[in-house]
Amino acid sequence: MTIEDMSSSPWAPLSDANFNRTIIDRGINLADLACLPISTGWFGKKEENRRLIKVQCYSLQGTANFYMRPIEGLTVLLDLDTKKVVHISDMGRDIPIPKSENTDYRYSKLNNKYSKVRLMKPISIEQPKGPSFEIEDGHLVKWVNWEFHLKPDPRAGVIISRAMVRDPDTGELRNVMYKGMTSELFVPYMDPTDAWYFKTYMDAGEYGFGLQAMPLDPLNDCPRNAYYMDGVFPAADGVPYVRSNMICVFESYAGDIGWRHAESPITGMGIREVRPKVTLVVRMAASVANYDYIVDWEFQTDGLIRIKVGLSGILMVKGTPYVNMNQVPEEEKLYGTLLSENVIGVIHDHYVTFYLDMDVDGPNNSFVKVNLVREETSPGESPRRSYLKANRHVAKTEKDAQIKFKLYDPSELHVINPSKLTRVGNPVGYKVVPAGTAASMLDPKDPPQMRGAFTNNQVWVTPYNRSEQWAGGLFVYQSHGEDTLAVWSEKNRPIENKDIVLWYTLGFHHVPCQEDFPIMPTVSSSFDLKPVNFYESNPILNMPPNFEEDLPVCRAAASA
Amino acid sequence: MTIEDMSSSPWAPLSDANFNRTIIDRGINLADLACLPISTGWFGKKEENRRLIKVQCYSLQGTANFYMRPIEGLTVLLDLDTKKVVHISDMGRDIPIPKSENTDYRYSKLNNKYSKVRLMKPISIEQPKGPSFEIEDGHLVKWVNWEFHLKPDPRAGVIISRAMVRDPDTGELRNVMYKGMTSELFVPYMDPTDAWYFKTYMDAGEYGFGLQAMPLDPLNDCPRNAYYMDGVFPAADGVPYVRSNMICVFESYAGDIGWRHAESPITGMGIREVRPKVTLVVRMAASVANYDYIVDWEFQTDGLIRIKVGLSGILMVKGTPYVNMNQVPEEEKLYGTLLSENVIGVIHDHYVTFYLDMDVDGPNNSFVKVNLVREETSPGESPRRSYLKANRHVAKTEKDAQIKFKLYDPSELHVINPSKLTRVGNPVGYKVVPAGTAASMLDPKDPPQMRGAFTNNQVWVTPYNRSEQWAGGLFVYQSHGEDTLAVWSEKNRPIENKDIVLWYTLGFHHVPCQEDFPIMPTVSSSFDLKPVNFYESNPILNMPPNFEEDLPVCRAAASA
């Protein structure tokens, strides 16, 4: 879909008299209508050979947060090219439109309300001598021990490429990752009814994760010390346009500790050595209609890359006749949580799949599963009966590297360079430190799951292939799941000592709660790419601590 | 053990001529000796009826980091009361003591070395108008919407009690947690040989997690804007002593986002509303000999409490004759990773078990498992074949609430107040959001695991009982596992609508890597206590954004 497709489709139903009549019959002024273009997905039928889209509408009356005022049950199927109405499903006329009260979230509409919590005094991250990074040629970021190329992309949002880290012993720049990006998202809602079953979004391939990234708010999306980068994308007619302040880059210091040791009262040596932890963050926030995804690539001086996804924005909610749980019959299926009168937050999952072309000290790498297993001792061997042992297994082909995490069969997952050993003979590597491990539990034969089959495993490894970058396929809109990561991986190609791509899916199950109404506090999850025997020793051993005399001198703002 | 036990035991072997002889025979000057008191654990034998301790030694020659220079295989068993040697196990004489080079971590020993990475410019968190919290009577912390009591404790380290949060709608203070603390730790090493099998530490009950918490470094352990609190503890003779700056309290701002929404190009409404995220952190760092544990209790304005444990400090390592992996025979068991010449980092686990006496809007609460299960649709019901459904199950007795996490049987775990419903009829509650879910895989019949049986599950719920606060038992040293959480929970007492205690274990498997040598970059994990239908709606909806005119005015320090 182009931006033009997305922004014109919602208005198309207004050319249909039946549509206008049902809107007016439901007591809604046509001028208060806000409608959304919803990707249709694919549901196992032979589809007509044309581009289709569904449109659902909301009432804007009394609030900017129309998402909380669904016109439930009304779904218009449009031809995406002609913008003609193909079908109107007109159900749910008995479901009231939820009230507008308490749904607006704009500060200008709220700030005269009495707040019963005490206010916070100003706080900020300050760097009066400026940032420690430079950006060369507009895209090459250099910070402490890191160098990488940063690019806004209409589909992936942010692309990090040629990430290299300087070795503290040799001073050399060493390759870590050739390219890293958000490859695809899969967001299935858990409601099989007429107006909801098709909500199984793939936000990168269908809507464009970068196309939906809006300008960042300079004092709130990123701290005051941030640098901003614009995106330049082609419109549908080929003319370039600028998306200003789409990405920010900043140094973060949260008061965390890089490393520390104090000698305890046991030895009484009086040693206390502590190093503060400062990181470099690259951030983008994509607003795919209601939802806001905050994507951070965080670089640490110890060589670690943390990839974090925050979910905020507004829920996609469903209208209901109920105003209290005590009205809901035992057998009734809500498919979610009653969040407010007549508003249900429908259960859904979020899967964000990352493409990580790792090049640890060069392109040819191997993927190693280090399995932790219980070993029982022989009788008389030890007063202990058991201990854990680490068994290394080098994955030979793709199927060896289709990983579903199991808590009671734990393993570390390493990408190593088998041709490069440390001084004492360990292969240099990086490991994936998982989190956000929610796994898709849909029926694998369910059409949405066939399209989102790249979430069948949490980790996959494929040999580099320039046509395999988008986990849901190159063309995702109305796709049938014939060109996904799951299909490619079934080829079971060799991956040992090859240029390999690691795929990681960060997963969230979201059972909404009232705190998510009318706008959601951010929920975050992250995974790490962490050096494992990549360095000869702790690479931040030589970093200095903070000294009082180096820190800035600040005063309260004149206005305060 | 008292601090006096711990600090006197390491010197006791010097009164034994055989001990001194083997030290000298190994080429070590007695003046260079550093020894550690190591809890003996219990290994299923009928023990002598006396207090015992083991002592192992290291060479301090050429480094303050003696931990990297083990005198491998030499273990002295002492009577802890008389300090007399009971037995000396004198093995490993053929294992060289690792070199001292590159092991020291003190800045004063490093700062004249050429650093090949570029330096960082000063960065700090600034609050020129001061913090937004007050501490009344030395212990009652009041910050934005939170109030809680904070106490240093010799065994638990930090105790948070009577944590209450102000409701933005009513202005009332609402109870969340009556008491929260680190109850016990369990740190089994995974090496069954003579000098290692007994390393199965329980750091709170054996060493005193608070007793090991040393004064924090004001500019590096906590940011510049921190407030410090002292601990006052009794010495063995009953005389109180002060542990200064044991706990810090500070506001943190990392550049994160509390909530946001921008209207996308789809609707083109030009809305962008973002709120920065500032949190309050309570921190302690315990140095249990080599290891440093950083424990954070982080309070958020949205009602969330994040409990985070960071691991840093120094590994407990093992001497080995090998200097390179190419010397290690295929069948040889290293029990860990070769980190440097003659140094093995032994695999181990860390389990940190928290006692959380939740009082959500009052003492009587219930524990609810919200299981997410796949529901298949009936033929013809929907174009979808499957969706996820949330099934609620209220735990009646303790065994209903013994939880081992499973990724493919996911559930949310709620502590609710069944007597208090929201406006639309949901029970008010808090949920546990797990992370750091490594589970103990030792044989449940292994004596260390019997003592550490509180790690048999990741979550337990017990009815409040004042004698059940220490998960490993009131008396842990040389205990036989007869008084653990696992034993209490087997009583299977009713827990529905009772004053209940939630127990959560944060687990880490640690397979050391070279980056951990000679001192470890911090590894952190955290879990959350998060409001779930506790508030009627987003409690931070009314928080203001940052405005430029409120932020501080800073300049570089004069010296810089």
TrEMBL record, chains A, B:
Contains 1 topaquinone per subunit. Its cofactor is Cu cation. Signal peptide: none annotated. Its EC number is 1.4.3.-. One of its GO terms (molecular function) is quinone binding. Keywords: Copper, Disulfide bond, Metal-binding, Oxidoreductase, TPQ. The keyword Metal-binding applies. Topaquinone (TPQ) is generated by copper-dependent autoxidation of a specific tyrosyl residue. GO terms for biological process: amine metabolic process. Residues 1-98 form the Copper amine oxidase N3-terminal domain. It comes from the Eukaryota. Residues 124-540 form the Copper amine oxidase catalytic domain. It holds the Pfam family Cu_amine_oxid. The active site is at 203 (proton acceptor), 291 (schiff-base intermediate with substrate). The modification 2',4',5'-topaquinone is found at residue 291. The keyword Cytoplasm does not apply. Belongs to the copper/topaquinone oxidase family. PANTHER family: AMINE OXIDASE (PTHR10638:SF41), COPPER AMINE OXIDASE (PTHR10638). This is Amine oxidase.
